[in-house]
Amino acid sequence: MNNKFMEFLENMLLPVADKLNNNRYLSALRDGFMVALPLIIFGSIFVVIANFPFLDKVISEEAFTAYQNALGPASAATLSIMGLFVIIGIGYKLTEHYEGEAIYGGAVALAAVLILTPQVLEGVSGVIPTASLGAEGMFLGIFTAFIAAELYRFFVQKAWTIKMPAGVPGAVAKSFSALIPITLTLTVFLIVRIIFSYTSFDTVQNFIYTIIQQPLTELGSGLPATIVAVLLIQVFWFFGLHGQIIINSVFDPIWYALNDENLAAFQAGLELPNIVTKQFIDSFLVGMGGSGMTLAVIILIFMIGRSRQLKELGKLGAPAGIFNVNEPIIFGLPIIMNPLIVIPWLVAPVVITIITYFAMSTGLVPPPAGIIVPWTTPPILSGFLATGNAWQGAVLQAFNLLVVVIIWWPFLKILDKNYYETEKKGESK
Amino acid sequence: MKRILLACSSGMSTSLLVKKMEEAAKEKGMEVEIWAVAQDKAPSDMEKADVLLIGPQMRFMKKKFGKVAEEVGIPFDVIDPVAYGRVDGEAVLNKALELIGE
């Protein structure tokens, strides 16, 4: 690969990354998920504890049920209704971006979603179905939060607010200044709800789910789309750009929705509907030492590295690599712009995606159970946790590491030899 | 007391640098405060810093951070990829001090 071509590619990618990242909706979406993340992880911890392996065999069935019921609310109040927190986060962050009263932006987004949500469940009224705040309502929630925050801003900027005379306490004045914009915004959503009740979709929720969410998640759960996403992450990183943060902002709604569907099935003891989920990517691809599964590269350096440069890098990169932080390897090997390394860099993740997908679709390894494992969880452990405490998940990760080691072997060998010879030449001079 | 703020996607890889930079500063006998944050927290932390440096993998956010840094009135740059890969605390510390104008 010549430099001109590389330069050309970088000049194409940088604006794309810039656009994706600086797009205010994608930024708000990413930061909105960040708001939900600590809660999601809290819920996940208790799903893991509630499903400890062999526990159901050690204690009586009754005691096990009581145990699970006692821990249930932890995930029911967080992980299962993560959409709720994402909605507030998006409304807040988008309004903050416009330098408005962020907390009202979050509140108005949540209220708008609730207005569009059917408050009836199997004939019982006065309830909010939790499913509409989880996987099923994810897309409706995201779109509604965007639109609600936009409308709120629009009405605030139109200055149709009640001006308070000087001397009125600030908080009082603020609550009044938000009154008209919020009233107008929510009225719009109420009208939308009423209009939809006359269509065959009945609810907006149903409309978004059927027209947008289902086709998109179906596409996103497939192997081809997943390979494309994985390759894009790798290509961005190859140019030293943070691939996940760029690609996740597009794929996260899909991956999280798929994740929550699996969680619901896992907790109900049903067959898991999806293979590709947030955790498929986070535990089985990124969670193997970082993007590009560089823990295998570190292992390989310890196995065959002779050059001082690589040995030093291995020592430097190993402690962070175990926790999936791999910038030292990416910039130090270096992986970026390295024409020799581009081959294993792109090939290995695709191979692992395919292996993992088929290991799960054939039933050899259970699919991810919808538990969100923090991405800094070391491999082997993360595979075990992500699959709902299944040892097969850990074994699959170990096997995948071995595959990556084999793919990288010849390339790292050449790189190491080059470094070694340069070092020797430097010494003999 | 110089206050140096580092930022990357979640403040993980830059926190590796923090330790090395602190060691380098100690050797120089300098008093510095260095901390790493996730990119979404960087704008609010800038007020407390004398300089902002971001990881090279975040350089697509250069425009965004540049604008905020200008508003806050602190110097700002992207960390050199080679120094970043080596977790070269001294080089990055020198860069930060140079930007502050020491």
Features:
heterodimer, A: 429 residues, mainly alpha, 2 domains, two-stranded antiparallel ribbon, 18 helices, 2 strands, 72% helix, globular, B: 102 residues, alpha/beta, Rossmann fold, 4-stranded parallel β-sheet, 47% helix, 21% strand
Highest CATH level, the class of chain B: Alpha Beta
Low-pLDDT parts of chain B are none
Radius of gyration of chain A: 25 Å
What is the overall silhouette of chain B? globular
> What's the CATH architecture name of chain B?
3-Layer(aba) Sandwich
What is the multimeric organization of the chains shown? heterodimer
Structural class of chain A: mainly alpha
Q: How many helices of chain A?
A: 18
Q: Overall mean pLDDT score of chain B?
A: 89
Structural class of chain B: alpha/beta
In helices, the fraction of residues of chain B equals 40-55%
**Total tally of structural domains of chain A:** 2
State the separation between the terminal residues of chain B, measured CA to CA. Answer: 12 Å
Q: Helix proportion of residues of chain A, in percent?
A: over 70%
Rg of chain B to the nearest angstrom? Answer: 12 Å
Subcellular location (chain A): Cell membrane
Protein name (chain A): Permease IIC component
Pfam family, one (chain A): PTS_EIIC
Membrane topology (chain A): Multi-pass membrane protein
